[in-house]
Amino acid sequence: xxxxxxxxxxxxxxxRIFSAQxxxxxxxxxxxxxxxxxxxxVAVMILNKLFRQELPVMWLVWGRCLFALMFxxxxxxxxxxxxxxxxxxxxxxxxxxxxVCSYTAYRHLPSHFAALIGASSAxxxxxxxxxxLQEPVDSKRMIALAVGxxxxxxxLGDAINTSWSHYVLWAVLGNVLAATVAILSKWLTTRSIxxxxxxxxxxxxxxxxxxxxxxxxxxxxxxxxxxxxxxxxAVLGSIGACIQYTLLRAYQVTKASFVAPLExxxxxxxxxxxxxxxxxxxxxxxxxxxxxxxxxxxxxxxWETKES
Length: 308
Hints:
mainly alpha; 76% helix
């Protein structure tokens, strides 16, 4: 096959792929946005552990918000920044709390275990979506979710009698806050609030809160950041902006009860990432539990794509 014929073949193949009906389904597009958010999240948390000696958590979350805001400003359309002050303010405070809890937990817990605990936020999200958004959750999905949490329970056995077990409470609190943020994010999209608006307030409000804490507490004034630390904050801030935007886009195009279980995939990404970058070796039970979690996530994607 000549080069011109090869190019023609690739062109036809690409056209078929990108014109396929599956790309037009909201559930599949929501899945792609959620996967982008998961990959970005894993990248930030691995960097958080790699450079934990360089930056305290409070400086880290402050810098992430600062550079995330700088990153998104050139792409903003100010007409999209419609305001619901009370809801956006509450959501911003919850985002700040979830960030502090998550960064603290991921910094001290083994990466695969932290991802496991993070996946448990799906349970809170699905329940809250049913109560506040009236999103239906049928028996099939509830059974699948229960099976997924069998994988969670299996992996929780690794945390018993460990030196880092108390950090699990930070992770659980972060999950509750993150689930509430997810419900508010979905509610805002149902009110025709553009994702850019929620993203900006989800950055500005935490930035203001963290700035006030750093200014009021004298111990933080003694820490001087060098060029290397500022560069690290810039990288983390840019990736952090990607996490928020892609997740909001996922909630915009499909149901919250569909997006939430996809956070299980973070565990599958964390296991190889933790091994490659941190030298953390999961146990056999980690693989068993992770397999259950991945399988259930695939089922959710298949069901939602088929029904959309």
